[in-house]
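Hi P.,

Sorry for the delay on this. The queue was packed all week, but I finally got your sequence through. Input first:
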Amino acid sequence: MQLSERHHQYWRKNLRITGVLLAIWFVVTFVVGFFARELDFTFFGWPFSFWVASQGALIVYCLIIWYYANYMNRLDQEHGVAEDE
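Then the structure:
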């Protein structure tokens, strides 16, 4: 099957958003968690670094999933490959 330029464009956009969201995931998981150790004060009885690394990361992960789902739905509709509901 020969892929058209439209298919290649769809795939490039898909790979681009996946790469960007994986980069955000990496930064939130490893970079923020690494530098959170420097936040040395107590927040609701726990070290603030614990809250940044655990609770903040979970919120960002949920936002990444929500954004990816919405973006891919829009991209599917734009390129005519959306699933019928």
